[in-house]
Specification:
351 residues, binds S-adenosylmethionine, 2 domains, single chain
């Protein structure tokens, strides 16, 4: 017998998180789903099959991502009228029966979508990565080799092609299709550095191809439909990805870093955002060991930068924050540069 009470509390938990992260639409839909689990029908049929999935499986977000995909494919009938991502206007009481119709009319697609964990690639997190890099590079750096762990679709491997706008100034091409407004607050960012990226590579066990229709659809379906700025950033980054190549290989982080090396007359940058929690302790140790190996090879002619945006605590007992951390070799020290929001913007710089 599936434990529907447990599932209902997980849905409420996800609803609260969506509310905190700026999606009143998903908060309302997930709260309604939690209430309606007791009612016999398509919602209960779909969710009961996943009632025992662990919390991180994000059952509610899998369901809503699957439905959003059908909306984007124009296969969801009247439900599209209530989805802002396709020009609709959300009202819970009108959307709810239309959503139940979609679940009843597309059982195979819904069952298929429920098997897939939500996968995003947050363009806003580039504000933390590029802002962090600007803090540690010399004003006239050598050409950069950019490497990313858990790169998803590799959109942030093109991060120097985005425009960063803050009260203290702007950085990046003015005509970029990605305009990150109010990207940075706090300590001012050095804006005089130009970056020439000559190599862009990443890894992910489940990479998405941002130049394919399928990849674009998957990425868009997991962005919450009432978040126009996130959708706009994604669309802009997809446009850039179509003309700026970057390679994301199907590999876990440990295998990828094991093959990395530094190169003379280049700055090698290894970065990652919101992926460390997916590595088990052994894989984290391997990656840390490989970073140490490369740090020992670094020299003034082949410097190495390790930069991350990951949730963590500065000390035991204090709250989680999304910390921007950097370490540079052969000169530098490990330091917290600032704190970002879960989807990136804004980044509050501390040094
Ligand atoms: C929350 S997403 C973040 C994606 C991207 N870094 C961003 O910030 O938009 C986490 C990513 O980590 C990837 N991932 C999971 N296990 C991994 C592993 N062992 N090595 C590398 N990446 C992994 C997932 O496939 C997913 O693309």
């Amino acid at each position: 017998m599936p434990d529907l009470d447990r599932l209902s509390s997980l849905l409420v938990h996800q609803a609260e998180a969506c509310g905190r992260l700026g999606s009143p639409m998903y908060e309302a839909l997930l709260r309604r789903a939690a209430q309606q689990l007791a009612v016999t029908g398509p919602l209960r049929d779909v969710l009961a099959a996943h009632a025992d999935a662990p919390g991180p499986a994000a059952t509610g977000l899998r369901l809503l991502g699957t439905v959003h995909r059908l909306v984007l494919e124009r296969r969801a009938g009247d439900l599209a009228l209530y989805y802002p991502s396709v020009g609709g206007r959300f009202t819970l009481d009108a959307a709810w029966p239309a959503l139940l119709d979609v679940l009843a009319n597309h059982p195979a697609e819904v069952a298929d979508g429920m098997r897939r964990p939500p996968q995003t690639n947050e363009v806003g997190r580039a504000a933390a990565l590029v802002g962090g890099l600007l803090r540690v590079l010399r004003p006239d750096p050598m050409p950069l080799r950019l490497y990313e762990l858990g790169a998803s679709a590799g959109l942030n491997l093109r991060a120097e092609q985005f425009r960063y706008v803050s009260r203290s100034g702007v950085w990046g091409p003015s005509d970029s299709p990605v305009q990150l407004q109010a990207a940075w607050t706090g300590t001012s960012t050095p804006l005089g550095t130009a970056m020439q990226v000559v190599d862009r590579r990443g890894c992910d066990p489940d990479p998405l191809d941002p130049t394919s229709t399928e990849g674009r659809l998957v990425l868009t379906s997991y962005v919450w439909p009432d978040q126009p700025r996130r959708l706009e950033r994604l669309r802009g980054a997809l446009e850039i990805a179509a003309r700026v190549p970057a390679e994301v290989t199907r590999q876990p982080a440990a295998d990828f870093v094991a093959r990395m090396h530094l190169l003379d007359d280049h700055v090698t940058v290894l970065w990652h955002s919101v992926m460390w929690q997916y590595l088990d302790a052994d894989e984290q140790d391997v990656v840390t060991g490989q970073v140490r190996r490369m740090s020992q090879q670094a020299s003034l002619g082949a410097p190495f930068v390790y930069l991350s945006l990951e949730p963590g605590r500065r000390a035991d007992g204090v709250d989680h924050e999304f910390l921007v951390l950097v370490e540079t070799w052969p000169v530098g020290e490990r330091q917290v540069l600032g704190v970002a929001q879960p989807h990136g913007l804004p980044v509050q710089w501390e040094c």
